[in-house]
Amino acid sequence: MAASESRGHALALVTIAIWGTTFVSTKVLLVEFQPIEILFYRFLIGLLALAALRPRRFKLGSWRREALCAAAGLSGVTLYYLFENIALVYTTASNVGVIVSVAPFFTALLAFFVTRDERLRPGFFVGFAVAMAGIVLISSQGLSGGGWGDLLAVAAAAVWAVYSTITRKIGSWGYDNIQMTKRTFAWGLLFMVPVLFGSGFQFGFARFADPVTVANMAFLGFGASALCFVTWNLAVRILGAVKTSAYIYLVPVITVAASVIVLHEPLTAPIACGVVLTCAGLLISEWGKGERKAGGRIRRRLR
């Protein structure tokens, strides 16, 4: 394995390790905050952190590229996390962490049918089937009410696949990764504004007097947003959307463990078996992937 590819896998693994615990932090914050409020504060903190690293503005030079950045902000920031945060109102952190793991399948289909730069072999679908069996086992143990939480989690997974595919295209432009992430955050925050004020949002800084609130919001803003979006985008640039998104299969393992320790959610035998199947599905899926297509014809199509 080349050094750059190893770096891509390491970046994806670290990112997922942090993201896997965000469900727990969000669940804690939902006691005092609305889903859209958590989303707004989280990405405002992330944007300010990235702006401190890259204070200068720059132009993309094309309205089509700007539109694609806006689409990344809408899909990967506003819609994905809004669906995820609302889902956590109706179901457990474990349940949401498990269900969003279907994102790699949506990503693979988009990469295959839209960009045509990924090949999928039967082993990939075998791995997905095994992982899905684990997902069903874990999901069946959730305490979801009415199925709305599960449905919103599936919607979040589908939207994340769109974001991953767009990010791959943006990465091919060669711009500074932090600058592009900052731009994506800015667009995401802009798209939040109508929902934010439509929900009766108030700043309410008194809620930040609680150290637990501050710690969780800082973790979501600085770690899970500012840092992880940069590392995730770098991983996508190195490995491609399909290989990188396969790491999302590990989210249930991390989320279930964190939920049991922090939120005291139950760890039953079906959940344990589901975690094992999910990990096995990840490995099988990786073995079943084909190589990324190369050649000028494909590169021209992506430009």
Structure description:
By secondary structure, the chain is mainly alpha-helical. It has one domain (3-302). It has 13 helices and no strands. The chain has helices spanning 3-29, 35-53, 63-90, 93-99, 103-115, 122-139, 148-171, 177-198, 211-239, 241-245, 251-263, 269-287, 296-302. The chain is globular. The two termini are 28 Å apart. Mean pLDDT is 84; it is low at 293-303.
Can you count the beta strands?
Answer: 0
Number of domains: 1
Q: Tell me what portion of residues adopts beta-strand conformation.
A: under 5%
Unreliable stretches (pLDDT < 50, length at least 5) are 293-303
Radius of gyration: 19 Å
Principal-axes shape call = globular
Proportion of residues in helical segments: over 70%
Characterize the largest beta sheet: strand count, sense, and whether it forms a barrel: none
Helix and strand pattern = HHHHHHHHHHHHH
> What is the end-to-end distance?
28 Å
Number of helices: 13
Mean pLDDT: 84
Structural class: mainly alpha
Main location: membrane
Family: Belongs to the EamA transporter family.
InterPro entries: AA-Vitamin_Transporters, EamA_dom, EmrE-like
Organism: Raoultibacter massiliensis
